[in-house]
């Protein structure tokens, strides 16, 4: 049964607009400098109405976390975000003193007035798509801000009263892109951010970057350099007092993202907007991916949910292990089902890939570089075949 008591306490809202599409991006994004805010909010209203009707949620749902992501939510500006907040307040309730309310912004579209207005609305955590504090890599990535603009955005956020500021940084750029990765990490520390998300560049198949890599015109770094940069950011931030609490995420103590934890610890969450995912009652449900199709579906009264799946017990177990090993909590020993257990664990220990105590098995940063195959083995799956196959039936 789905009722208000089993309702999600985390909400994700996808804002599918960017002023320009970055050539490596495969998110659900449409390019627009002036997003159709009225139409977008009408569509979100229809999405929410549909959820509340289908789940028979009668009252406003209590939230612990809200996350406005994208895309580029800062293109909503002060007014658009204010209207979005009013729309959400019709369906949800949250305690302003305890809620974690994150919004993502790009440095070139978050002027001081928008920062101040967002704080006024109640947003208390800002996540900036910085990627680098150097002009060379920013130009190569096709970003609309430069190094000075990236630093200035962090400073504006802090001046507006955001004491929780994340910066996204990308590592693993091609060797011929002029970039000093260590200098980017140091700059984030100098600017006093409380959280860093460090992602390796990947060449997704449907993107211009993916095509360039396929054609041999761009060469991504080999595993050695990729791993060196990953271990460098981990070492430098931990030395500076950050916790490396998830594969890609680092936080000052007390500043880990509560919203993201809910994705990893199996909590329920609701997602609205194109491509948004929800996890409710053991089922994963996702929305129509593209903004134009989502908007058309709203106009035609067609379903906004594009698909759903209910993982089998074996898949759930693999997912639980994979999500647990992503974090610095790890997995309980009773979840560990490694074939040839003692020998495999001894080998991983020798390589420095695992850390253990009486209760949990965890991965080290070196282990996180091999997360997928290690998680598969820990969950009792074999990675020998092209596709994962369950070693024993669940
Ligand atoms: S700003 Fe972010 S979401 Fe927008 S196109 Fe670039 S990478 Fe994608």
Task: Provide structural commentary.
The chain has 394 residues and is of the alpha/beta class. It is built from 14 helices and 21 strands. It has a 9-stranded mixed β-sheet with strand order 11-12-10-9-8-7-5-1-13, sandwiched between helices. Strands 14-15-16 form a 3-stranded antiparallel β-sheet, with no helix packed on it. Strands 17-19-18 form a 3-stranded antiparallel β-sheet. 38% of the residues are buried. Mean pLDDT is 93; it is low at 1-5 and 385-394. The structure holds iron/sulfur cluster. The site of iron/sulfur cluster (SF4) has 11 residues, from loops.
Q: From the helix content, strand content and strand pairing, which structural class follows?
A: alpha/beta
**Major beta sheet, specifics?**
9 strands, mixed
Mean pLDDT: 93
Flag low-confidence runs: 1-5, 385-394
Helix count, per DSSP? 14
Percent of residues in β-strands: 15-25%
Structural Rg: 21 Å
How many strand units? Answer: 21
Helix fraction, binned, reads: 25-40%
End-to-end Cα distance = 25 Å
Can you tell me the overall shape? globular
What molecules are bound to this protein?
iron/sulfur cluster
Give the strand order of the largest sheet, numbering strands 1, 2, ... along the chain.
Answer: 11-12-10-9-8-7-5-1-13
Write the layout of secondary structure elements.
Layout: E1 10-15, E2 17-18, E3 30-31, H1 37-55, E4 61-63, E5 65-70, H2 77-91, E6 92-94, E7 100-105, H3 112-121, E8 125-131, H4 135-141, H5 147-159, E9 165-171, H6 181-190, E10 195-200, H7 208-214, H8 223-239, E11 243-246, E12 249-251, H9 258-264, E13 270-272, E14 277-280, E15 283-287, H10 291-300, E16 305-309, H11 313-326, E17 331-332, H12 341-351, E18 354-356, E19 360-363, H13 365-368, H14 371-378, E20 381-382, E21 389-390
Parallel strand pairs: 1-5, 1-13, 2-3, 4-6, 5-7, 7-8, 8-9, 9-10
Antiparallel strand pairs: 10-12, 11-12, 14-15, 15-16, 17-19, 18-19, 20-21
Helix pairs in contact: 1-2, 1-10, 2-3, 6-8, 11-14
The protein binds iron/sulfur cluster.
Residues 18, 21-22, 25, 27, 29, 70-72, 106, 129 line the site of iron/sulfur cluster.
